[in-house]
Amino acid sequence: MYKLFRHAHPFFDHSSTAVLLDVHHQVLVSSTSGSGAQNGVLRRGRLTIRRDEAKHVVGNILHMNVGDGEHSYSKHSLLQEIAIKKAKPVLEEAIKSMLRTGSAFPKCFNVVDLGCSSGPNTLLTISYIIDAVYRICQQEKLAKTPDFQVFLNDLPGNDCNTVFKSLPVFYEKLEKEKCGFLSSCFISGLPGSFYGRLFPNNSLHFVHSSYSIHWLSKVPDGLMNKGNIYMAKTSCSTVHEAYLKQYRKDFHSFLRLRSQEMVSNGRMVIAFIGRTMIDPSASRDCCYYWEILAKCLYELVDEGLIEEDDIDLFNVPIYTPHEEEVREIVEIEGSFTIDRFEMFQINNDPRDNDTNEDFIFNEIESGKNASNYVRAGLEPIFTKHFGASVIDSLFSKYAKLLGENWLLEKAKNTIMVISLTKH
Ligand SMILES: C[S@@+](CC[C@H](N)C(=O)[O-])C[C@H]1O[C@@H](n2cnc3c(N)ncnc32)[C@H](O)[C@@H]1O
Questions:
Q1: Does ligand 1 lie within 6 Å of residue 77's CB atom?
Q2: Which end of the chain has the lower number of beta carbons within 10 A, N or C?
Q3: Ligand 1 near 154 CB (within 6 A)
Q4: Of 35, 61, 87, which one is at a domain's C-terminal end?
Q5: What secondary structure letter does DSSP report for 353?
Q6: Strand 336-347 and strand 412-422: pairing?
Q7: Do strands 46-49 and 336-347 pair parallel, antiparallel, or not at all (unpaired)?
Q8: How far is the CA of 158 from the centre of ligand 1 (A)?
Q9: What is the pLDDT of residues 173-212, one digit of tens each?
């Protein structure tokens, strides 16, 4: 049942093993083991790894493409930037209502951005939050804003260096634009999974997360999803059930953990990819781009570059929920009230004209743009599983096939934005 990978894992060089773990040391992507794995023990499909090694493995696999090179996340995060800009009114309204309904302005406003990644979006979000508080303080004729304590959270493998290097310019800009009225602002990186505790009890006023919590803590257990890498039209119903079960567990624990960390009347604004139809296989905004990516992987099988079994062992640890599923979990968990639930769509090619509903101007360019955006987020995972040598070929096939598909019907990402108040 378990297959020996041909790519030796860097942390298990005496066995052929490829794993993707979250900080609770659970396997995110497929787990395999050679017979003599000395650092890990395979028990019923789960690889238990000594704590010291697990720390390294986590961060080195799940992260966006680092730096600012051709395929970096920094260069290909326009889609996420559009989502942040569209969600801005929800964020501003949440901060306004919190500060206006709270008994007193906090002396220090404690904020976290969960899954901040690296690149221009990381500090864009923070500037929106600071601006919103700043404006309210001016309207309320306060002498100064509170101090800001800002935490930038992501998994330990995130490219924090790129973010930290951009901080001096950010601080300088803040000082220039808001001189005199802005109190101090302290920004720190916080490595760790948002599926674990990150803060002391009752310490956060505002939690933000954009384009991150559709990532699950792990690939659902027991998936039998031959021929696919996500929920697909040809997946049997147990696949959707398994994904939904994992999502329920993860999102429930995400809410429970944040509720412990947040002050009462604190606000949380989260944006993530969802889907418009309850049946995932009928949703063009949910499954279809993974189906196309699976087709490209099969072309690599035909070319003898990967094996079919490699695809069978691979499923993406992402879930794009339907509104009903999200509302149900918030209600069951019980710590938050939903103040706003917004949905909007963004073209899969973020450079495409937003007002153009159905027409593709240039399928080659559009396919490339969309493929680059997927590659910037998924390359590390695909490289670990399928090997670095097939990545260029995989994503150039993907660009071509996406473009050809959009000549038939354009596709969009559905973004959900929820604003919640902690009871
Ligand atoms: C597509 S990026 C979004 C980055 C940024 N918020 C933006 O809008 O551009 C998703 C980020 O979520 C992070 N992420 C995924 N699962 C996570 C987890 N369990 N804990 C913390 N960060 C996580 C990834 O490492 C990645 O950097």
A1: yes
A2: N
A3: yes
A4: 61
A5: -
A6: antiparallel
A7: unpaired
A8: 9
A9: 999 998 788 889 999 999 999 999 999 999 999 999 999 9
